[in-house]
């Protein structure tokens, strides 16, 4: 995944002026920066949900991507149940594995019969994660995936993602998520980008500072 000389503005507000950045296989980048630095915009560009004004975003031919952002929850069909949603996505999978999948993501017993329209934000996020991780793509782009999750589900997600062997690019304000899952750090600053070859913990040790906007 290579971004070359990427320019992006919203109206008169310039977000990047010539961004160069490369993500290689198995790297796990956390993206840091203050509010409005352009973290979500970068993830959108990588995911193809937004186009650069100038420059190129190139994906390797074997890249299969999963993109999670808050709007991902809106694509759930309100009248479908949790189970119907999983079955619709994986028609070949059979009942038992899908029930097990739902269970792993906290939908036990009758809860899989709940319609999507009644799900809480956290339940929707869990269902979207289950859809994404059943047959995981080899590049995950995650924009604040733990936002609506309770602690138990967050820990479960961290465990699942630490076993994931693909490449990741993510934004998180959760210290444990950052520390457990990153092996690279990209910092967006007004002066441009800084990259660090180690994970978040090494970044904190080296720079003596934590990510801006950390929640826990
Ligand atoms: N579609 C849009 N139209 C106009 N301005 C936008 C749009 N999307 C983002 N922006 C602006 O661009 C800037 C960067 O936005 P972005 O969401 O990438 O920042 P961020 O670093 O993810 O911020 P936060 O930490 O607050 O989520 C912000 O000032 C934002 O208001």
TrEMBL record:
Residues 1-215 form the ABC transporter domain. InterPro entries: AAA+_ATPase, ABC_transporter-like_ATP-bd, ABC_transporter-like_CS, ABCF, P-loop_NTPase. The keyword Repeat applies. SMART domains: AAA. It holds the Pfam family ABC_tran. Keywords: ATP-binding, Nucleotide-binding, Repeat. PROSITE patterns: ABC_TRANSPORTER_1, ABC_TRANSPORTER_2. Belongs to the ABC transporter superfamily. This is ABC transporter domain-containing protein. It comes from Mesorhizobium escarrei. The lineage of its organism: Bacteria, Pseudomonadati, Pseudomonadota, Alphaproteobacteria, Hyphomicrobiales.
